[in-house]
Amino acid sequence: MTVDIPSATRIRSRPPPAARRAITLLVAVVGLIGLAPVTPAEAESPVPPGYRQVASEVLGPGVVHQTLHHDQPAQSVHVARLAPGMAGRLLPVLAHDVLTGPSSGVEPTSAMCTRVRCVAAVNGDFFDPAGDSIGAMVAGGELLATPGIDHILLRVDGQGRPTLRPGLDWGVAVATADGATLPVTAVNRPLSGDGVTLYSRRWGPSTATDAAATEVLLRLPGTANSVLPSGASAVAVGPAQAGGNLPIPAGHVVLSGRGAGALALVAMSERARSSGVLHVAMEGIVSAIGGSPKLLENGKLAYPVDNPDGFTRNRHPRTLAGITPGGEMLLVTADGRGASAGLTLLEAARLLAGLGAVEAMNLDGGGSTTFVTGGAVRNVPSGGSERGVASALAVLAGGPPDPLAALLKQVTDSVNGLLQPPP
């Protein structure tokens, strides 16, 4: 039933500005509630063709763990599905938090997960026999290492948006007061060529370089140890020193070079004795970890899966990462070399597509493949026990950003303002 209000009784006066603002904000909030995305915890997660879901659990706000099985061939798959925005809770973790020295070496994924109090984690990048990750690594905005080789990186920006792209656009340089600039060619990598390498405490207690290296110690502000995007002051502590293997005290970094790099360091050290600035740029990336190859791009195969090599064509345990069109992040493991057969790279790509991914990459696999929740290993590592690895990709506790929170606060503040008695 409709009721017509006589024209004589219609209210023609406009509400005061504060009330109009509150009404506008309330309408916006109602609209956002109607459009708010459903998180994986609230919706049924996709199951790829041929698989069946045998378990599903909510690990925390915005994080769901799926367990999937497949028959003929037998497959056991674990999936951590992160709601849009939750990629901002991803933290690449370095084994023992250091690259070299007596405290370095590989570490189990479960131990790294426990150390950072993660809700879930998988093993990370490929690594060399010395235990060094092959690709670049960024954690919490800190540049832990530049690429050893350029391969695919899972990158997350400051808004929690994940992308899969090759390489990392980074830049590190030391500028002096007289306008001179010394570019850095690598960060926390073994010294090579005629360039200049920067070493932070993430590298180890000293640079571990040989006697041919010339090195300069730079003091950072306060007790900072991080190579962060900034224009931090970096003052040379004394002249350049020959002989290599310079200690890296807390609150300092070391520049190291040979040949032309050494000559440039000698000149720079004199200019930076009174003042210098360490510039670090990483195109807004706050987290990055490497892997290879890229399997899906824009929903299509991005790798020649007909390659005849065993890495491509044979079934192995796999650790994978994917991104859906809506911005969900997928961390996936498939067991192999046992009761579970493992996946070829083509089967891995099809699995990720069936989970909803349109962008996907391969991480280190084989005996390294590990899926952890709350510090406990949930998959069956192919070696019979969990293997130590160079890095892990952890999901920290905490939910995705709430798009309604700011608007609701504004509405509350506006309504409270209306309820205040006039002065």
Strand order of the largest sheet: 1-2-3-25-24-26-22-23
Helix-strand makeup class: alpha+beta
Q: Please tell me what the overall shape is.
A: elongated
Mean pLDDT: 86
Indicate the percent of residues in helices. 10-25%
Low-confidence stretches: 1-15, 32-42, 403-409
Domain module count: 3
How large a portion of the residues is in β-strands, by DSSP E?
Answer: 25-35%
Q: What is the number of helical segments per DSSP (H or I, 4+ residues)?
A: 6
* Termini gap: 42 Å
Tell me the total number of β-strands.
30
Give a short account of the largest sheet.
Answer: 8 strands, antiparallel
Cα radius of gyration in angstroms: 26 Å
Pfam families: NAGPA
Domain Phosphodiester glycosidase: 246-395
Protein name: Sporulation-specific_N-acetylmuramoyl-L-alanine_a midase
Q: Key terms for this structure?
A:
single chain; eight-stranded antiparallel beta sheet; six-stranded mixed beta sheet; 6 helices; elongated
Write the layout of secondary structure elements.
Blueprint: H1 17-35, E1 51-60, E2 63-70, E3 75-82, E4 90-94, E5 107-108, H2 109-116, E6 118-123, E7 137-139, E8 142-145, E9 152-157, E10 162-166, E11 171-176, E12 181-184, E13 186-187, E14 196-199, E15 214-219, E16 230-233, E17 235-236, E18 241-242, E19 252-257, H3 260-271, E20 276-281, E21 285-291, E22 294-297, E23 300-301, H4 310-313, E24 318-323, E25 329-334, H5 345-354, E26 359-362, E27 371-373, E28 376-377, E29 388-389, E30 391-396, H6 405-419
Parallel strand pairs: 13-14
Antiparallel strand pairs: 1-2, 2-3, 3-25, 4-30, 5-29, 6-27, 6-30, 7-8, 7-21, 9-10, 9-21, 11-12, 11-20, 14-19, 15-17, 15-18, 15-19, 16-20, 22-23, 22-26, 24-25, 24-26, 27-28
Helix pairs in contact: 1-6
